[in-house]
């Protein structure tokens, strides 16, 4: 194979609950994630032995800080591959935005490189490599909808709800995930379990019900540091988007659209106020 292009979809967290702080510096969480049509794309081109990564955005590192580089190195070591590859990343997902862009690029590199180098795609084995790359990477190998436990890396696939209209608004600044987790104060009492209620709402593809159970425990932390995120939620509500939530550690806010027409109202109202506004839809798992 000489060339291969693979998609790396964005994700949103419909629920993100933080259970406890762990000794290894991570937090045990329970999160329900869904992938979106908004996606980066990775183009793989054969090279003799060396590994080269490039990106159409100059602010994205293309050295070992990039999960695509790490994914290729891990896969080559795991399967003793000697061939090289050039991977070009076309970014459409905003960076450090809570949408899993970098993680999804890493996941797409793992799956794409298996195909490219004729390695049988063994998702169980890839899950182990994916977890080494980051907490969100195992989910993004397949996407669709799933519950993530542990660091968010233990994946229990759920029936997805593809085709739901979403608006994404990103205020244009990056939010470092470790800082948000660090500033989180864990409550003494637990709130009621939205995750059990969310599952039937998703399998029935019922946007009103899904909207009732959206919850992100990291939101309070980011909202306090960046009032602009709250402002986005208020504007969306004023446009008729009642169900809106920050994704991951933020700052991107997603809104469940009751109809694509409401999306047009949002686009018109926000105009060029924010650097990234996008209407997209939820997707099922990747093939
Ligand atoms: O797993 P990932 O590399 O994406 O995580 C980035 C950082 O976010 C971690 O180093 C940690 O500070 C924080 N994190 C956490 N608990 C999680 C996931 C991430 O504390 N479950």
Task: Please specify the SSE layout and strand pairing.
Elements: E1 3-21, E2 27-47, E3 51-55, H1 67-79, E4 84-90, H2 101-116, H3 123-133, H4 137-142, E5 145-149, E6 154-158, E7 165-170, H5 177-182, H6 194-203, H7 207-212, E8 215-216, H8 219-225, H9 227-238, E9 244-246, E10 253-256, H10 260-270, E11 276-281
Parallel strand pairs: 1-8, 3-4
Antiparallel strand pairs: 1-2, 2-4, 2-5, 5-6, 7-10, 7-11, 9-10
Helix pairs in contact: 1-2, 2-3, 8-9
Walk me through this protein's architecture.
- This protein is an alpha+beta fold and 287 residues long.
- The chain has two domains: 3-157, Ribosomal Protein S5, domain 2; 165-281, 2-Layer Sandwich (Alpha-Beta Plaits), CATH 3.30.70.
- Helices cover 34% and strands 29% of the residues.
- The longest helix is centred in the middle third of the chain and has 16 residues, at 101-116.
- 44% of the residues are buried.
- It binds cytidine-5'-monophosphate.
- Cytidine-5'-monophosphate binds next to strand 2 and helix 5.
- Cytidine-5'-monophosphate is lined by residues 25-27, 29, 134-136, 151-152, 177-178, 181.
